[in-house]
Structures are given as structure tokens and as C-alpha cells.
Amino acid sequence: MDKTRKGLAATVAFTLAIAVSHYASAESITVVNQGGSPGDAQKVAVFDPFTEETGIEILVDTYNQELAKIRAQVETGNLIWDVASVHSLNDAIGCDEGLLEPIDWAEHIDESKFEAVGGFTDCGAPYLVSPGALVYDADRWQGDMVPRSWADFWNVEKWPGKRALPFQPDQVLEIALMSDGVAPRDVPKVLAAPGGVDRAFAQLEKIKPHVLWWKSGDESMQLLLTNEVVMGYGWQGRVNVANRSSGRNLKIVWEAGYTSAVIYLAVMAGSPKVEQAIELVKYSLEAQSQARYAEIMGYPPANVDSYAMLSDENRANQPTEYLDRGMMQAGSLYIGFWRDNGDSIRQRFSTFTAR
Amino acid sequence: MSATTTFAETGQVPRRLRTLVRRAERQHLTKMLALMAPSVVFVALLFVVPIALFLFRSVDNVEIPKYLPNTVAEIGQWHEGELPPEGVYRALTEDLIALKGEPEAAVLGRRLNYSVPGFRGLVTRTVRQLPDTVPASARELLAGIDERWLDPVYWATLKQQSGRITDFYLLSAMDLKRGADGAITQVDETQAVFLSLYGRTLYTSVGVTVICLLIGYPVAAVMASAGPAAANWLLMLVLVPFWTSLLVRTTAWVVLLQTEGLVNKILIYLGIINEPLSLMFNTAGVFIAMVHVLLPYMILPLYSVMKGVSPVHLRAASSLGAPPVTVFRTVYLPLTIPGIAAGCTLVFVLSVGFYVTPALVGGPSDQMIGYFIAYFTNSAVNWGLASALGAFLILVIAVIYLVLGKVVGFDKLRVR
Fold first, then answer.
1. CA distances (Å), origin A67, targets A85, A230, A332, B110, B166
2. Is the predicted pLDDT of residue B2 greater than 50, yes or no?
């Protein structure tokens, strides 16, 4: 009984101490991210060393990219978060609607290091990229039979059999244009121009009978691992997990051209800790932090200087040599296009795939 | 005695007796209503009201009249075939200036974008570039910001969609739209997706119902005629999958049916086939998985009705010389029709709403209407269209139920 009471008292004191230290600390900022293993990696690679270096403590909250939660805080003036991790669409909407703070990032960070991932936006600083690319089983295809381009993906004579693509128009239309000879960097421009969507659908028409459409990242890897398909489009994070958990040798063909989701750090509008927030964003984007993060997560770093700091094994899995072959799912042209045309393209995609 | 005489003579109930009867009836009714009240209130609050509110969204057009009040008042002056008069441009400019820096501009843009893809970008762009006051020529101002303001298609949309109630979502759900002149026309062939989805949904549901009936009827009959111990075992075999989560069962079928799955491996091992069959990502896979998931809903009502069929009737028919087929056709089948009707209704109504199973084991040509209802509800947040699609689904089911009721008889459709 006495022991329990002592233990309880100690726990209460400990909790209080933590709470007090959090709130008493003048220098603390709250960051919200998507949690999970990317969140854990961010803590180890960025937040902990940042606190050690600057004395600014980082409190972490998680959310599921619900813009409504940011809106509620900004509109009531009751800010819980100071920095938010937002994907490119939310970054655009949040910035348009005044929920995120416009910041002149060029004043603080060398923007040229981030050109390969699409650069900065009015509010957001790119800190995480998650690519999707052509994937094949390196134990199955060797030598002359290794696919090298999206045109190879379309070549059903040399590689007879099914191919795996996601059952969604975004990313698929982009790949179709790449297979038709459009350079990855030009894809958003071609897609948004008149006739761009028609061109992509015409290209898809050519391999439609040979496509298996997957509906989840798990399924995309399952199709490759069970040889249901000869090659497929897959996300890098999933490929890493699949290789690790099943001891297989799936390989990504970066030179074919790839798409990449971009996640930004942005400061909440009206945050009283803008200065510290900018410090944190700067630190997150530094080459060392980015390299540490890439080493843990296996995603490519957003900062181009970080590639030199990666381990050989990690670098071999990254698009190191092919940074110019990536199409970022970001930029006002790209985001504006999908925001305005997403629904009608999805309907067209549905009739197209069903026919 | 005299009362009876009076009644018999005049055919009228004496007033006093009538009042007593009425009072008793009223008390009975009040008691009944009081007892029913909790369930009625519960159903109304948690079922009828939310569904009605959501169905109202299929015609609700709150955004445009609310955020563009001046434009809505002025747009009547505009006639097809010419540019809108300055007054209309001015009204829109005033409305948009009021939305500057407001999140409502994005909400309005989203709504307008449903009608014309690209309208959202036009609105956000315009709102951002507008000055704080309206200059002499609002038309020049808007056209200077974006040339699209000289395109009648955007004005036609504003005019057609200016009312508090709209038919836009209901028409879209039928692959129809209003042209620039207001006449109803077919949407572009590449956009026409919903009618074929309704067709496929009905086709799949009817097919699954028929297969469930063909498989379930003999199973239920065996269960009903088996001894109690055997019947219990059979019932367990039906119920255990019934209790398992839908997702687990569907995923299990994925494991079994895939090219290198158990079914293909066994068939190849037995030498029945040489090449693996494609059992998944096509209609076959959808039918296999859906029939399995829905079979208990067919067997259980059939079983409960068959349990009640007395074997005496069958024996009587046989002893009068009827061959087994005639006994089945003239005695057993008619007696089990209520079970067939109940089971078919249940399975059909449930399969109409399926979309997880077709999504996981079907190909792109096996998607059902539920897929798009879920997409517009969860991902696109276009609740107007989601609600319109749902409204037509309810309508289709109601029509089928009424037709079936007329043909089979409503009393037999009741689920027991």
C-alpha cells in the first residue's frame, strides 16, 4: 500500500515536472506531422538534434492532413500548432485561404539546393519527397531483359504479360505522357495544355488490355511478388518494405522517369513563434538533417547536397544520378490542374478503364 | 333488450354505447402510441431525419445565392448570345470583392468547379487580383484579369445555377446536363459513367441473388430436414463465415483466387488445367466473393420458412401417388415462396450497396455505383452528387420492390 502510494506520488511528481518543464520552457514550438514511421524518423533525425543544438524544445502532435483542423485553429485564433507538415494540395489551399504564413524562404535558405524537388512555395518549404516509379523483379529479369524506360513498360511484345498501374488517374496520366516521349519535367505543362489529357488517354489505350489496376500500395507489391505482373508502378517506400520483409530483389528504374509526392513544412498563420519556427524549418532542410532522415526512412533527401552524405547502400537505392528525371507532384501549374480537373478526369478514367 | 331492438330497427348504435366504445378506442390508441414513442423518436432522429437531410443535398444550391447575391439578382438581364451587360459584370465584381481574403471564395470556387472544370481556378485568380473598389468599367476589369470572363459558358452556369434549388446534381447522376441554352442534353461520352454503373450494379446484384438462391435453397432444405444434431452443425457452418468481418473474407478470397493462389495450384496439381485460370480482377472473382459473403442471408430466411413446412403435407402428396418432382413443384415450392422472396430481397438489397468487395477482387469494369458514392462522399467532398447518386439507388430499389410486390404479392415479400 505504502509502496503504491510512493510510486503514485513519484509518477505525479514526474508528470508534473514534465508538464511544467514543457510549459515553463520559453523556447518550445509545436509541430504537427503525420506520425507513424516517418514521424519517428523525423524525431530522431531532426527534432532531437535540433533541441540539443538550440535549446528549443519540440512538441509533436499528429494529424491526418485534415486541413479543417488547421482552419479551426487559425479562425478561432487559438493556435495549438506552430509548424505543420502539409502535402502539396493542402499547402496550396492553406496558403490561398490565409491559413499558412507566407514566408520569403530565399532570405533564410539557399533555394537552389531544392530545385530538383520543385522548390519552395509561397508558404511551404519542401522537406520530404515520396517517389513512385517503374519497378521490376531483378531476379526475374536480367541482362537484356531489364526494362529501362516507360516505353519498355508499354512494349508488350518483348515483355508479354500484365503490368500493374494504380487505379487512379493522377500519376497514371503522367506516366503515360512519359512513355510517349515527354520529358518528366515537361509533363505538367503538356498535361495542362489543350489536348494533353487526350494524348495521355490515347497512350493508355495502347496497353489497357495488359494492365492490372491496383487499389492499394500493399496490392501493388503483392502483384510483383506473386508474379501476377511482369513489371509495375510502385512507391519507393513500399518497395523498401517489400524487399526487407520478403527478402526479394525488387528494383526501381529511376532513369525511366518517376513521379514524386512532395511534403512541405509551413508556419501556421499568426503563430507567435515565427522566428523559432523558421529556425526549425531551416534546420530540417540542412544537408545533414536531410541525410540522416533519408538514411532512416529510405526516401530520397530533398536537399541535393545530402546525396554525398548517404551510405553507399542507401545511395544505390536513391535516384542519385537521375534527379532531372523526376516529376514533382507540386507546383502551381500541376496542383491547379488537378484541383480544377480532378473530378471530371476521374469520371473519364472510370469510363475508360471499364470499357 | 330494448337497446338491441333499437339497433336492429334503426341500424344505429345508441349514442351512449358509441361514446364508450370511442373512449376505449382512444385510450387504447394513446397507450399504443406511448409505448411506441421511444422507438419512433429513435428511428426519426437517427434514421429518417439524417437521410432526408442528406437527400436534400441533391437539390441544395446554397453557395451561389449566398455568396453572389448581387449577381443572382442581376443575371436575369443577361440573354444568351450576347455579352452580359455592364450591370451584371459590376454585380459580380462587387460580390467577389466582398469575398477577398475570405475562405468562402474557395467554397464558392469548389461549387462552381463542379459545373465547369476550371471555374475554381478562374474565381480564385480573379478574387486575388481584384482591386478594393469597382472601377468605371467592371467588364474591362474582369476581362483584363482573365479573358475567360468573356466566355458565355461561365455566365450560363451562373444563370442556370442561381436558384436556391438546383437540378444539377440529379441530372449529373443520370449522365445529363443543361446546355448553354438550358435544354437538357447528354454529357460528353467520356464523362458518361453513372448510367452504365447503375446497369452493372443491377446486373451484378440480380446475378448474385440468383446464384445465392440456386446454392442456398438445397442447403436450407437439407438443414430443415436433418436431425437436430446435424442441423446444428450445418447452422454453425453457415453462421461462422456470417460472423467473420467482410474485409477478412474478401481478402481471404484474394489469397485463394490469385494466379499463384491455392485454387489454381490445386487444379494444376490435379492436372485439371495446365495454365492458371484468371479468377481474380474480373467478373468471376466478384461473383465468387459476393455469393460467398451473401449466402447466409439467403439460407437463413429460407431455413426458417422450411422449418415450418410440415412433412405431413409432403407425405400426404406422396401417398396420393404424386412423384417427387410433382410433390416439390406443387407442394414444397409454393410453401417456401415466402422464404425465397425474403432471402432474395435481402441479398439483392445488400448487394446493390456493395463496393468494397468489387473493388478488391474485381477489375475496373466490375466497379459498382457504391464506389463513386464513397468517392464523392469521402475524397471529393461533393456531397450533392453523392446524395443524388444515392437518391437514384433508393428509387431503383423502390421501383423493383413495387414491381415485385405486384407480381408476387406484398404479403410474401415480408421478411420473417
1. 11, 39, 18, 15, 28
2. no
* pLDDT < 70 stretches in chain A: 1-26
Residue B373 Cα distances to B153, B353, B370, B393, angstroms: 28, 10, 5, 10
Q: Which of A93, A228, A347 sits opposite B106 (nearest CB)?
A: A93
Query: In the prediction, which pLDDT does B405 show?
Result: 80
* Cβ contact A351–B118 (<8 Å): no
Testing the interface with B: which of A199, A340, A349 to mutate, by most B Cβ within 10 A?
Answer: A340
Cell of A201: 488517354
State the cell numbers at B402: 413495387
Q: Please provide the CATH number assigned to the domain covering A2-129+262-320.
A: 3.40.190.10
CATH number at A130-260+332-354? 3.40.190.10
| Contact yes or no for A339 and B121 at CB 8 A | yes
Question: What are the E-state strand segments in A44-160?
Answer: 57-62, 83-87, 124-137
| DSSP codes joined into one string, B63-86 | HHHHH-HHHHHHGGG--TTSPPPH
The segment with the largest mean pLDDT, out of A155-164, B2-11, B393-402, is A155-164
Tell me the residues of A at the B interface, defined by beta carbons under 8 Å apart. 71, 75, 93, 96-98, 167, 212-213, 215, 222, 226-228, 336, 339-344, 346-348, 350-355
Minimum-distance CB partner of B120 among A226, A339, A351: A339
Closest CA relative to residue B301, chosen from B332, B274, B336: B336
Which residues from chain B sit within 8 angstroms of residue A347, using beta carbons? 190-191, 193
pLDDT above 50 for B3? no
Q: Spell out where chain A has E strands.
A: 28-33, 57-62, 83-87, 124-137, 163-166, 211-214, 231-235, 250-253, 258-267, 326-329
Task: With CB atoms and an 8 Å threshold, state whether A343 touches B196.
Answer: no
Contact call for residues B65 and B163 (beta carbons, < 8 A): yes
Residue A250 phi/psi, 5° resolution? -80, 140
According to CATH, where is 3.40.190.10 located in chain A? Answer: 2-129+262-320, 130-260+332-354
